[in-house]
Automatic annotation (TrEMBL):
This is DUF4460 domain-containing protein. Residues 26-117 form the DUF4460 domain. It comes from Aphanomyces astaci (Crayfish plague agent). Pfam families: DUF4460 (PF14687). InterPro entries: DUF4460. It comes from the Eukaryota.
Length: 188
């Protein structure tokens, strides 16, 4: 009955409702590392961008810390990419927590504003050898709902797209938070 009704009235609610389920099967794959490239350039120890008016060189301890955090971020991006694209494997879900913490050089403009409000920025910045670094931190924890949907998708291939939608929502929230903390524009 609904099928006949949808054919008779092409713009009806019934036809729109059925169209959403077919839309899930046609999702394009996404490349999270390409999406994250501006963030990666901002925190990568070898190419860390320094404000030309601030410090001359980034401290080695910051570079080492960011390098270790990059390994964790890459592991998360690999798993999230597989989840977002519906290509998860059973062993991908073995790690459920990814603590991400980066430090980037604080610009002179931000340093001046923090000096005016001394107590507000203490948790967000650190001082090493007279230089100020801004802390970017996000502890990624795969939710039970996400893991459950992923396990269900591994057992029933027809539910892969449902799990991929959950992965995309969770990953989008994580990436938006990292971009916001790094003071980078988010492009949707």
């Amino acid at each position: 009955m609904l099928r006949n009704c949808a054919r008779i009235i092409p713009g009806s609610a019934a036809s729109r409702c059925f169209a959403t389920s077919s839309k899930l099967t046609n999702m394009k794959s996404i490349n999270l590392k390409l999406i994250m490239s501006t963030f990666l350039l901002r925190v990568h120890p070898d190419v860390m961008q320094v404000d030309r008016n601030s410090m001359k060189e980034v401290d080695q301890s910051i570079k080492d810390h960011n390098e270790n955090a990059m390994k964790t971020l890459n592991a998360y991006l690999d798993i999230a990419s597989a989840g977002c694209n519906g290509e998860l494997k059973a062993d991908d879900l073995s790690t459920r927590e990814f603590p991400l913490e980066f430090f980037i050089p604080t610009t002179k403009k931000v340093q001046r504003s923090l000096r005016k409000i001394k107590t507000a920025g203490d948790a967000e910045v650190i001082h090493i050898k007279g230089n100020m670094y801004t802390r970017i931190s996000h502890s990624v924890k795969l939710s039970d709902k996400l893991v459950e949907a992923s396990h269900h998708a591994l057992m029933h291939r027809r539910t892969v797209n449902v799990a991929a939608v959950h992965w995309r929502k969770d990953t989008n929230a994580v990436l938006r938070d990292l971009f916001r903390q790094a003071d980078l524009p988010v492009l949707s």
